[in-house]
Write a structure and sequence with these properties.
Blueprint (H helix, E strand, L loop, with lengths): L2 H21 L6 E3 L6 E3 H17 L4 E4 L11 E9 L1 H5 L6 E8 L8 E8 L4 E6 L3 E4 L2 E3 L11 E4 L10 H13 L2 E3 L4 H9 L5 E5 L3 H13 L3 E3 L12 E5 L4 H8 L7
Parallel strand pairs: 3-4, 10-11, 10-12
Antiparallel strand pairs: 1-2, 4-5, 5-6, 6-7, 7-8, 8-9, 12-14, 13-14
Helix pairs in contact: 1-2, 5-6
This protein binds D-MYO-inositol-1-phosphate.
């Protein structure tokens, strides 16, 4: 039912990724947003303008919520959550780990099934992840599934540090300590959409982060669900659209991780 939306998003994300790859080695205009290290480049804006233009051309009756603010809000039934460049900090440092992330939310759908299509494109690795509700999750034409690992002590878990984390590190450090002592190891890779995509394809067992935005995680959350995993908040509640805190996992390690994180967050 939602396949054609995912296919359109794959096409747009591939073109957007080519723009990012072509410009990676150029010197970028870098501005800071709320914090010094919360950066935006001319490429975030240029690629967002392209993506938003393409989405509106193909789906003029959809709304768009885009990271750099060029969206629309007309109270319509479908809303795209667009991150034109997830991993901006990596991009600025020419670390080849960043993505285009496009997630589609059906605003009028029943509450736990609102995410209906999602694409995460790992540009420099040419890995196109996509999912559509009840159609499974896919990577470059192959169906993907979460890992079967059920032992936390062997699990590789990834996390992120919200931009306000330097000013309010207490709960973040506390959660990191709890998770790193219980799990095999922890990574901080710098692009939330790719964290989720790599949980979906079984390379990572789980991802958790507080302070994410819908454009960071809408597409990736659907990937994890369609790959057989679980997505909740830190208290274990299913979340239609992740906003304050997110725990995404292969399902098998979800409950023990959730018990470590439950109740320990700054934002509600
Ligand atoms: C950021 C990345 C990062 C995560 C931050 C996000 P951006 O997105 O996904 O991994 O820790 O919370 O804001 O700013 O690069 O699009």
């Amino acid at each position: 039912m939602y396949l054609s939306f995912a296919q359109a998003a794959v096409d747009i994300a591939r073109q957007a990724g080519a723009m990012l790859a072509d410009a990676l080695r150029e010197t970028h205009t870098v501005e800071s947003k709320s914090e010094l290290h919360n950066m935006v480049t001319e490429m975030d804006r240029r690629v967002e303008a392209f993506v938003v233009g393409e989405l509106l051309r193909r789906f003029p009756d959809h709304d768009i919520c885009a990271e750099e603010g060029s969206g629309t809000d007309g109270g319509r039934s479908f809303r795209w959550h667009v991150d034109p460049l997830d991993g901006t900090n990596n991009y600025v440092h020419r670390l080849p780990w960043f993505a285009v992330s496009l997630g589609l939310e059906r605003v009028d759908a029943e509450v736990d099934r609102r995410l209906v299509a999602g694409v995460v494109y790992n540009v420099m690795h040419d890995e196109m992840f996509w999912a559509a509700l009840d159609e499974g999750a896919w990577l470059n034409g192959e169906r993907i599934h979460v890992s079967a690992e059920s032992d936390l002590g062997r699990s590789l878990v990834t996390t992120g540090i919200p931009y306000w984390g330097k000013a309010h590190p207490r709960t973040l450090v506390d959660n990191f300590e709890r998770i790193v002592t219980a799990c095999g190891d922890v990574r901080r890779l710098g692009a939330a959409a790719l964290d989720l995509a790599n949980v979906a394809c079984g390379r990572l067992e789980a991802y958790f982060e507080e302070g994410i935005q819908t454009w960071d995680v809408a597409a990736g959350a659907l990937l994890v669900r369609e790959a057989g995993g679980r997505v909740t908040d830190y208290d274990g509640a299913p979340i239609p659209m992740p906003t304050a805190h997110i725990l995404a996992s292969n399902g098998a390690v979800h409950d023990p991780l959730q018990r470590l994180l439950g109740g320990n967050y700054r934002l509600t």
